[in-house]
Amino acid sequence: MRLPPIIYHKPKSLSEALDFLAWQGEAATVMGGGTALINSLRHRLVKKEHVIALDHLPELCSLRESGDHLEIGSATTLRTILASDILRQKAPLLLQAAAGVASSQVRNAATLGGNICLDTRCVYYNRSAEWRTVLKSCFKLGGEICHAVKRAKGCQAVFSSDLAPALLALDATLLLETKEQKRTIPLADFYSGKGENPLALNAGEILTRIRVPLPRSRSSCFYVKLANRQAVDFPMLSVAVHVRWADGGEGVEDIRIALGAISSLPLRMREVENLLKKEGLSAAPIERAADLAYQEAKPVPNTVLSAAYRKKMVRAYTQRAILEACRGGGIRLI
Amino acid sequence: MKEQVCLTVNGEIYQLEVDHRRTLLEVLRENLGLTGTKQGCDTGECGSCTVIVDGRALLSCLTLAVSCQGKKITTIEGLSRAGELHPLQKAFMEKGAVQCGFCTPGMILSLKALLDENPRPSEEQIKEALAGNLCRCTGYIKILEAVRSTIMPT
């Protein structure tokens, strides 16, 4: 299907991009690899006249150690992330999450920033304009109904980024810039929890850098995603686990568990983490932790797999992810 | 908005007026008559629109034509040289890896991009490279046999 009329801009610098975005306001959107945006435009889910490309700007493609953290430019492609020796050594959880995204063709173009800023999804929303004419406009389209959950008072669309739960488990922060100012926020604060409008992005703001703290001691991790196929599909549940082991090999210093595609934002499972920090990482506490995750998860029927099945899988996948992280879970690229 | 652009496709330079809203897939097929690249799902999920841009396999249905100025584009038409088929194309024919043929250009280009970068990929790496190319006819077995037959043993 044809795209709507757009004007493509290729700014010569980040500064020029910010200026243009400030000037055009609501009429403009930025674009990374375009792998999400082009479809949204095609299906008339996004209505923007001006498209500002960012993927060619060297300022947004850095990938380096800087002091006590790793700094990754928001226009870094997932391909670059998968090929990065620094990230393989210091943040392998990102590679595990990136490896399962879409397909190699998509990963060649898709950017880290674009994945973090992915819109929420729903089987009733992510359809062509023609398909959607048979239903009333839902909350996410500006209407007053949710087709997935009839009594819902707001949009229940599901958070679908693979990289964000991994970044959440890694305690990442984001650098957001406008023409006038910059701000740094924890990744968790970037998500509103609202299906309609999932990003807490201010007007004129561009996500420019992602910062991941360098591991301070031995750590291990595991990322797993639930989908019908091993490629192409968005996650319908994902679990990211990051464990920091105490020096001297005596127990766990810290454990972070983030769930994706189970809610309208990525969820830190703090209660589950606390249970494990208190009781240790042996079989029985891990099973109780998985049960707790199951109780806390509240998926809704807006994906291809049923909510009931996904809820059951929260227990299974949380248990598996923790166990694999305990086994020293390294890179498991397909 | 329309713009005069210069696209380099299969080594040839094309000067044409392109509306910004047109995808690379549309321009290749409709403006340049290079219909080897196929429009399958038009949403980036089937891989039949795969082309190679600056050495990387990309989905042309998710790429704006205007963004490809200054880049080197290769389509399936660019694989044969002076009437001689590329080894991948020959292997696909010899091994029976082509049934309806619709997925074939995308498959071959994904494989070419892989082999250009990694001449001796493992079985896993081949499958990873092809995970985004769907085939409804063959069951993939012959496709894998075809690419394996082109990989020189160490």
Can you walk me through this structure?
The complex is a heterodimer of chains A (334) and B (154). Chain A has 334 residues and is α+β, with helices and mostly antiparallel strands. Chain A contains 12 helices and 12 strands. Chain A has helices at residues 14-24, 37-42, 78-83, 85-90, 92-99, 104-109, 112-116, 129-132, 163-169, 270-279, 283-296, 307-326; strands at 7-9, 28-31, 50-53, 63-66, 69-73, 173-177, 182-186, 206-213, 219-226, 237-245, 252-260, 267-268. In chain A, strand 4 (63-66) and strand 5 (69-73) form a beta hairpin. Chain A starts with 6 loop residues before the first strand and ends in an 8-residue tail after the last helix. Chain B is of the alpha+beta class. Chain B folds into 2 domains: 2-78, Roll (Ubiquitin-like (UB roll)), CATH 3.10.20; 87-150, Orthogonal Bundle (DNA polymerase, domain 1), CATH 1.10.150.120. In chain B, 32% of the residues lie in helices and 18% in strands. Chain B has helices at 24-31, 87-95, 104-117, 123-130, 141-150, and strands spanning 2-9, 12-19, 50-53, 56-59, 72-74. Chain B starts with a strand and ends with a helix. The chains are: A alpha+beta (334), B alpha+beta (154). Chains A and B meet through helix 2 and helix 6 of A and strand 4 and helix 4 of B.
